[in-house]
Amino acid sequence: MPLPAPGPMSLVPFVSVEAMMKIVLEQGIERMLIDLARYIEDDFRRWEQFDKTPRIAAHSSEGVIELMPTSDGRSYGFKYVNGHPRNFQTGRQTVTAFGVLSDVETGYPVLLTEMTILTALRTAATSALAAKHLAPKGAKVMAMIGNGAQSEFQCLAFKAICGIDTVRLYDIDPKATGKAARNLAGKGLAVVPCTSAEQAIEGAQIITTCTADKQYATILTDNMVGSGVHINAIGGDCPGKTELHRDILTRSDIFVEYSAQTRIEGEIQQLDADHPVTEIWQVLAGKNPGRRDDKQITLFDSVGFATEDFSALRYLKDLLGSGAGHQMLDLLADPDDPRDLFGMIERYGKAVAAA
Amino acid sequence: MPLPAPGPMSLVPFVSVEAMMKIVLEQGIERMLIDLARYIEDDFRRWEQFDKTPRIAAHSSEGVIELMPTSDGRSYGFKYVNGHPRNFQTGRQTVTAFGVLSDVETGYPVLLTEMTILTALRTAATSALAAKHLAPKGAKVMAMIGNGAQSEFQCLAFKAICGIDTVRLYDIDPKATGKAARNLAGKGLAVVPCTSAEQAIEGAQIITTCTADKQYATILTDNMVGSGVHINAIGGDCPGKTELHRDILTRSDIFVEYSAQTRIEGEIQQLDADHPVTEIWQVLAGKNPGRRDDKQITLFDSVGFATEDFSALRYLKDLLGSGAGHQMLDLLADPDDPRDLFGMIERYGKAVAAA
To answer: In this predicted complex, what is the ipTM?
Structure first.
């Protein structure tokens, strides 16, 4: 007598790291970034439909573990993500993540997925989407400061979505710069490794900072930032962690994802709580012009928001619907009679005994 | 050329529903309830070490999806759980859940598990643990009102942990009562199916209510509750969902898990915000006597709290350490160089092409 198979309602599609790598290779990374940006933009444009809350963070001396939930009333998504700057010393990722998309009507998960790779993609897609509206017209050169796990994704997103043709790389660790330069070779970008942040920003219309220290750092000082530049600051993303000198902030027009969260975690934690900022959805929805003139310094103070993960989960679910690889996970109990959870275990025991 | 296997740090132990059923059968359900109660008690006794927050709930007209995180500074746990009273109409569980335990030092998950079955077990273990300190001495008879998926677990926990020898079952649906009675046959309990709540509580020293309507209901009215009884109310667990008439509450000494959460979700949402209640950890830690005399009506207004899930996750992780069945899930990216997430995908692509 065969063991009873898990009931159909017990199974949840699961995308492993390996399955995600296959999806990235099949789709092509630039195509995937462009498609992701479209989903992210669509969701930002219907911002008012989402339940929004700052993420729920558990801080420790080593790092942070966060849950990032949101819902549009039909689907519910959340991401689990950590941030541990010293993890690389033990061969671990600074940021790892996984996420779940659920059906609000039943509360049942419909997708479980790795999100370490997917977060890198959605973060890059969000940065480039914002820059499309904030960077100076015709920007071709980006300085990429911080050449860790996120950097290549950023560079390719700005190429695919904003038309950047040159990236100038700098990291305090030259090995990281070398790694990024090798990975970006042959990808259609001119790649210029630099030995200082000052050198990296020479001639750059866009400056992306993505460093991982969990402390107040000053990656950019005020005199380094000329007029007309767009700054994409994505490394400062928790209380006590910033990358830019305060004087840069006061000279910039600041754009954020969700101000209630960014005031806790972003660069603007250095400013008064009522310092004016613009939520990026207002730009994407046409309620705010974004960049107004050539001299304006624009700053996207990005910490990552739950709707971006929701968009990424929604994108991935649609891909699975078109046949992308995944496995089915026996995650939810599915007894014959939904009220007979206890009996399900007993019947399984009898089947095991008889098998 | 073989494809690269997922790196060791990418793998997270996963306990599926089937694996959990095997564990329950191997351990024996009463033994498992007793062991779980010990873990839950240990954690309640060190209550002050935990980061505590009311769970994060996303409500809809159909139900609720909740995230329940907590941490003791070394481990971090969270549970995803839904509550959808009408789910049984489509063959789904009212409550399904899964959970994760992580290492605070790295932020890396160390366990992913189904928690539909595990939640049923930990809820029953918590109820019986509280009753051991709150029910009248020598209590032998329990009324079990609401005979859904949770009911058999409750009955066996009260047998194993409190020495109950008789359960009196009632549900508005006689089929549910019949199901519970059949499941409990031969388990060492006298089982009395009843046709009304009034009949069920005859001679009972403990009354457990576990019904699922998402609304204010009155499962027990004031005249039904005599002096000396212990009430274990576990079905009211979200805003607008209660089971007991308000007059019962004002006659009872009320014990709760975490008052900040219970005032939002429990029976006591019917009372003033400053109505005195005792957190159950104070009883378990010896700071409050629990039941003081034979005439006192005690009420455990239980909505389920994150530390109970944390205890269950910790218990399960220890079981896996002793060899309990599970599989390894490729959930976390583990590149050779932790900063080379991008390169990992490229190298995988080359290996696929060469294979």
So the answer is: 0.92
